[in-house]
Amino acid sequence: MELIYQFIWIVPLLPFLASILIGLGLLFFPKSTKSLRRIWAIASISLLSIAMFISFDIFRQQITGHFIYRYLWSWISDKNIVFKVGLLIDPLTSIMLVLITTIGVLVMIYSDSYMSHDQGYVRFFAYLSLFTASMLGLVLSPNLIQIYFFWELVGMCSYLLIGFWFTRSGAAEACQKAFIINRIGDFGLLLGILGFYWITGSFESEALFERFNELLANNEVSLWFATLCALLLFLGPVAKSAQFPLHVWLPDAMEGPTPISALIHAATMVAAGIFLVARLFPLFQALPLVMGVISWTGAATALLGATIALAQRDIKKGLAYSTMSQSGYMMLALGIGSYKAGLFHLITHAYSKALLFLGSGSIIHSMEPIVGYSPDKSQNMAFMGGLRKHMPITAITLLIGTLSLCGIPPLACFWSKDEIPADSWLYFPVIGWIAWITAGLTAFYMFRIYLITFEGNSRANSFKEAFPVSGITTSKELDRKEKRPIPLFTDSRINMEIDAISFGGKYIPYPKESDKIMLFPLLVLALPTFFSGFIGVPISQGQLSYDLLSHWLYPLINGPYEVISKENWLEFLSDAIPSVGIASSGLFIAYFLYGPIPFHSRNLQDDFEPFVEEEERGNPFLHFIYNWSFFRGYIDGYYDIIFVGGTRVLVKIGFFLDEWIIDGAVNGVGISTLLGGAFFKHMEGGRIPSYLFGFIFGTFLPSLIVLFTC
C-alpha cells in the first residue's frame, strides 16, 4: 500500500515534464514542434490523465485507511538551520489532487477544440501543463517554504495565461494588474512565514503547529505579534482568492482564453487561497482575532461579489464575480470554524463553476462568427438570447450548473451552501444575515445569466442592424471599420478563413452547437455537478448517521467526525428551508424580470435589462442598484483615484525634488563656482602689494570678529 505513496512525486512531475518538453521544442525546434501540435496536446492530456488515475488511487486509500504520510529529504543541513523538502499526503491533499487533475484533464480536452485555430496552440498547452503541475506541487507541500515556492509558480502561470493574447491591450493590462495585486499578498505571505519561523524555529507545518500551540499555552510568545504574523499570512490567500479588498484583478482576468478562466476559478488560483487557509487552519484557529478577520473578510467578499454580479453584461465577468462571492462563502465558513463546510463547498463549487465557464466558452465560440471576435460583442449578453433551441446540450448543462450554484436540491451546491448559512447564524447573527441574503442574490444573478442567454428572443439581429454587412464580413474587417489595431492573437478562431456572418454565401442567422470535443467535458462535468453533493448527505448506520466527507476528513478535524442522530434529521431539513426559500425567491424574481413569458410589456432593450425600464419610471433605488453593479461598486474608480492617481502625484513630487532640490543643489554649487571665478578674475591686476593686502585682511578679519563678539 505504501508503494504508491512513495512514488506520489510522479503526479506533479508528469505535467511538469510535458511543459518542459513543449517549451524546449518551441525554443530549439519551433517549426517541427508546431507541426506536431496535436501530438503534444495528446501527450499533455495523457500524462495528466496518468496523474489523475494515481490521484484516484491515493484518494481511495485515504478514505479507507485515514493514513497521513510524510516523505522528507534533507536539503540544507547546518548547525543553525535544517531544512527538508518532501511530500505530504493526507485527506485534504488527496481531495485536492482529484479535484485538480479531473478538472485539468477536462479543460485540456476542451482546449484542444477551443484553441485549435490559435497560433499559440502549442504554447497554450505548455502553460496549461505548468499551471497544473504548480498547483499539484502546492497541495503536496509539507512546509511553508515549498508552499511559497509553488505559490509563486502558480502566480507566474496565471500571469502568462491571463496575458496569453498579449497583443490585445486589455489582456496585457489585465495580467499586469493580476501580477501587481498578487505581489501585495505574496509579500505579506512571505513576511508571515518569516515571522512564524522566528517564533517557532520551524518551517514544517506539523512541527510549527505543535510548537506554536505550546508557546501560546505557556504565554511564551507575544499574542499581538503572533496575530500580526497570522494576518500577514492571511494576506496571501486574500489576494490569490480575490477577497475584498484585493479582488479587483479577478474580473479583468477574463481577458484570457475561456479554458484558463475555468481552471483559474475552479481548481487553481482561487482554490489555492482557500486551500492555504485550510492547511494552516490549526494555526489560525488558535487566534480568535484572526478567525474573526477571516470570517468578516469572507462575508464582505460574498456580499460584494453578489451585488456587483447583479447587472453585469459580460457573461464571463458575471461568472467571475460569482466566483468571488462563492470564494467569500468558503472563507466565511473557515473563519467561523466550519472546516468541513468550507471544503465541501470548495469541492461542489469547483465542478459547478468549471461547467459554467466551459459552457460560456461554448456560447462565445458559437456567437463569434455572428457578432465578431471582439470580447465586447461575443461575450456581451445583450447580443444573445434564444440560444436554447440552437444549443440544447450547452443549455441543459449550463442550467444544471446554474441551479447547482443557486443551491437548488438535490444538486451539489445545495448540500454545501445550506450548511454555511446555518453555521453562520450560530456564530454571529449579522454574518448569518449576510450569508442568507447572498444566497438569494446568487440565485437571482445566476438565473438572470441563464435566462438572458438562452431564453427569449434572439438579439443578434440588433448587431446586424448596427453593423450592416454584405457578402462575407470578417472580424478583421469589423476591426478595421472601428479603426482598431488587428492583434496577432485575439481569439482561438481569428485565423479561420470563414469567420464571417455568412458561410458559403448563405447567411447564418443563428449560432450552432459546439462540436463533440467541446461538449464531452460539459457532459462529464454535469455528473459531479449533480451527484458530488451526496458525499455530505448523512448516511444512516444503526441508530446514528454520519456523512462521508466528515468521515474522510476525520484525521484533520479535532475530535470525532461529525455524527448526526436521527432526531437531528428534522433539524438538518429545517436548516435547508430558509436557504432554499431565499434561493427560490431569487429564481422567481429573475424569471419575472427576464423570463420568456413577459409579465409586462417591454421592448428588446427592456428584455435584456428591465432595470432600464424601471429607471425610466423614476425608480431611484433600482437605478442605484444597477449603477452600483454595472460600475463594480465604484471600487475600481476609487482605486484609480487613490492608488494610481496618488502614485502619479508622488512621482511628480519626487521628480520635482530630484530635478530642483537634489540636482539643483549640485548644479547650484557648480554655477556659484563658475560665477565666483568670473567675478574674482577681474580683481587680478598683477600687483603683489594688493595680493598681500587681501591675504592679510582675509586672515585677520575673522579673528577680529571673534574678538569683538566675545
What's the quick description here?
With 710 residues, this protein is mainly alpha-helical.
Number of helices: 32
Category by helix and strand content = mainly alpha
Helix content: over 70%
Number of strands: 7
Low-confidence parts, pLDDT < 50 over ≥5 residues? Answer: 466-506, 559-567, 600-607, 611-617
Overall geometry: globular
Biggest sheet layout: 3 strands, antiparallel
How much β-strand is present in the residues? under 5%
Radius of gyration: 31 Å
Strand order of the largest sheet: 5-6-7
Task: List its salient traits.
two-stranded antiparallel ribbon; 7 strands; 32 helices; about 700 residues
What does this protein structure show overall?
- InterPro entries: NADH_UbQ_OxRdtase_chlpt_su5_C, NADHpl_OxRdtase_5_subgr, ND/Mrp_TM, NU5C-like, Proton_antipo_N.
- The chain crosses the membrane at residues 6-27, 39-61, 81-109, 121-141, 147-167, 179-201, 221-239, 260-281, 287-309, 329-348, 393-412, 424-447, 517-539, 576-594, 691-709.
- Belongs to the complex I subunit 5 family.
- It is a single chain.
- The chain has 710 residues and is mainly alpha-helical.
- It has a domain at 636-709.
- The protein contains 32 helices and seven strands.
- α13 runs antiparallel to α17.
Describe the secondary-structure layout.
Blueprint: H1 2-6, H2 10-28, H3 30-35, H4 37-65, E1 69-77, E2 82-89, H5 91-114, H6 121-139, H7 144-162, H8 169-200, H9 205-217, H10 223-240, H11 249-252, H12 258-266, H13 269-279, H14 281-285, H15 288-308, H16 315-335, H17 339-371, H18 375-378, H19 392-406, H20 412-417, H21 419-427, H22 429-454, H23 460-466, H24 475-481, E3 502-503, E4 506-507, H25 516-531, E5 539-541, E6 544-546, H26 548-552, E7 563-565, H27 568-594, H28 604-608, H29 610-616, H30 620-630, H31 635-680, H32 688-709
Antiparallel strand pairs: 1-2, 3-4, 5-6, 6-7
Domain NADH-Ubiquinone oxidoreductase (complex I) chain 5 N-terminal: 75-125
Subcellular location: Plastid, Chloroplast thylakoid membrane
GO molecular function: NADH dehydrogenase (ubiquinone) activity; NADH dehydrogenase activity; quinone binding
